[in-house]
Design goal:
Layout: E1 6-9, H1 13-25, E2 30-32, H2 36-41, E3 49-53, H3 54-59, H4 61-71, E4 74-79, E5 93-97, H5 102-118, E6 133-134, E7 138-139, H6 143-157, E8 162-165, H7 172-182, E9 190-194, H8 200-208, H9 225-228, E10 233-237, H10 244-256, E11 258-259, E12 268-269, E13 273-278, H11 282-287, H12 293-299, E14 302-305, H13 315-331, E15 334-338, H14 340-348, H15 354-369, E16 371-374, H16 415-433, H17 438-444, H18 449-458
Helix pairs in contact: 5-13, 6-7, 13-15, 16-17, 17-18
Bound molecules: adenosine-5'-triphosphate.
Keywords: ATP-binding, DNA-binding, Nucleotide-binding, Transcription, Transcription regulation
Pfam families: AAA_lid_14, HTH_8, Sigma54_activat
Protein name: Two component, sigma54 specific, transcriptional regulator, Fis family
Length: about 475
């Protein structure tokens, strides 16, 4: 879904101009509402996010409530901190205390956008908008994820076997569940089994069931996952870990659609859609003879690859916002968001554990922080970039003067990051010139020593 339009309603010209400039710069389609007559009487298209100050809002409350009733209008209101209690208790009414903090505003706008994206009351986004989610569980707006959503929707129509490959934590199980949910089998069971987590000697009985007395401890007949998944979907996770003798048995079920429970000679017919997943490279395993080639081809009728998070960084803020909302709700916390600096750090991190790692981090931050904004100081050390303060020129060669850029890049620039980088560079140059002496470096920069130390700490820079 593209961002929905933002409307600003404020009688104070300076405030609305500031908000307009900031939000437009952040890439939001933003409009000032000069007078509310047309806006409330004939909204077309219906407004979905309104940013306004509380007194203005109160003056127009009946109109706004009327407008919001039909189309899930999210209202972001600002005023003195104690005014918040006037607002209705509803996730669509977001409050921001004055003075306005633009980081906070942006995080609220992201929450509003997320609300629109996930709201079950808005299942059909306008035709010109692409969804940011599938089955309200898989979040993503990157090209790779939109392609994945399309693929899942197509695949769901058939009963063909699917092989989902991708690194750990990329959402393979979520994708499998979405395929099932969108398929004609959705009213039957989705049965997951992790082939790596069950000991080899028990896996066969887990999959195919057993008859009473077939082995020590088999006190009664027991249905296996194939039987439970009849007319539904069986999700074979970590298929790459399945041992050779079971691979043969699985191949047979895929070919004949029949199986025998352990200890029985009677075949049972079954109609199961198989979705297998692995984070191993199955083709390599086939080449190394660790995985049967014939089974590999049977499983990979439709191959799907989940992209790692580091290759779709534009999904990171969206996922963070989604998990933040979820953990704030679950844990009754009021964490407002990640500061711009910490968001930038997370967007540049490599995420070896993919979305699972991101989800765990947000949960940890929400648990520890409880409220306010998460700053770089709150992040665990491994997420912070390793600073390099070594002068980039060899000894005896003078470092170039930090002249900055002469022209604005065609695609625009993030002013805050650029200014931040420029500041860091000047500090590095000053420290390089003074051999790491902070007092002298501070003097060169016309700063108090303590201010320089603060900045070094904030930027996680070291002086030597
Ligand atoms: N695109 C996404 N949107 C929202 N949540 C996601 C997304 N991708 C993954 N997750 C979340 O990340 C966690 C890991 O997802 P999942 O178990 O599907 O990954 P996986 O690839 O099957 O991992 P593994 O290979 O380790 O089994 C889950 O909590 C899931 O809800």
């Amino acid at each position: 879904m593209s961002n929905s339009k933002l409307f600003i309603l404020d009688d104070d010209r300076k405030t609305r101009d500031l908000l307009l400039a900031f939000l437009t710069y952040q890439g939001y389609d933003t409009t000032i509402v000069d007078n509310d007559v047309g806006f409330f009487d004939a909204p077309s298209p219906p407004p979905r996010t309104l940013i306004t100050d509380l007194p203005t809002l109160l003056a127009r409350m009946p109109n706004i409530l009327k407008t919001g009733a039909d189309n899930d209008l999210v209202v972001i209101a600002y005023d003195k901190a104690e005014s918040a209690r006037i607002l209705p208790q509803d996730e669509r009414w977001l409050f921001m205390p004055k003075p306005l903090n633009l980081d906070e505003l942006e995080s609220m706008v992201m929450r509003a956008q997320e609300y629109h994206a996930l709201s079950s009351r808005n299942p059909d986004p306008p035709a010109d908008e692409y969804p940011h989610f599938l089955c309200s569980t898989i979040i993503g707006k990157s090209r790779q994820m939109l392609h994945l959503f399309e693929m899942i929707e197509k695949v769901a129509e058939s009963s063909a076997t699917v092989l989902i490959q991708g690194e750990s934590g990329t959402g393979k199980e979520l994708a499998a569940r979405a395929i099932h949910q969108l398929s004609g089998r959705s009213n039957r069971n989705f049965v997951p089994i992790n082939c790596a987590a069950i000991p080899e000697d028990l896996l066969e009985s887990e999959l195919f069931g057993h008859v009473k007395g077939s082995f020590t401890g088999a006190y009664a007949n027991r249905a296996g996952r194939f039987e439970i998944a009849d007319k539904g979907t069986l999700f074979l996770d970590e298929i790459g870990d399945m041992k050779a003798n079971l691979q043969v048995k699985l191949l047979r079920v895929l070919q004949t659609k029949e199986f025998e429970p352990v200890g029985s000679t009677r075949s049972q017919k079954v109609d199961v859609r198989i979705i297998a997943a692995t984070n191993k490279n199955l083709e390599e395993q086939v080449a190394n003879r660790d995985f049967r080639e014939d089974l590999y081809y049977r499983l990979s009728v439709i191959p799907i690859t989940m992209p790692p998070l580091r290759e779709r960084r534009e999904d990171i803020p969206l996922l963070i916002s989604h998990f933040l909302g979820q953990f704030n709700r679950d844990k009754r916390r009021l964490v407002k968001g990640f500061s711009r600096e910490s968001l930038e750090i997370l967007c540049n991190y490599s995420w070896p554990g993919n979305v699972r790692e991101l989800e765990n981090l947000v949960e940890r931050m929400v648990t520890i922080k409880e409220s306010g904004f998460i700053t770089p100081d709150d992040l665990p050390e491994k997420y912070l970039p390793t600073p390099s303060l070594a002068p980039s020129a060899p000894a005896g060669v003078s470092l170039p003067e930090p002249t900055g850029i002469e022209e604005l890049p065609a695609a625009g620039i993030c002013l805050n990051s650029a200014v931040d980088a420029f500041e860091s560079r000047l500090i590095q140059l000053a420290l390089a010139r003074t051999g790491g002496n902070k007092k002298e470096a501070a003097a060169l920069l016309n700063l108090k020593r303590t201010t320089l130390i603060e900045k070094l700490k904030k930027k996680n820079l070291q002086a030597s």
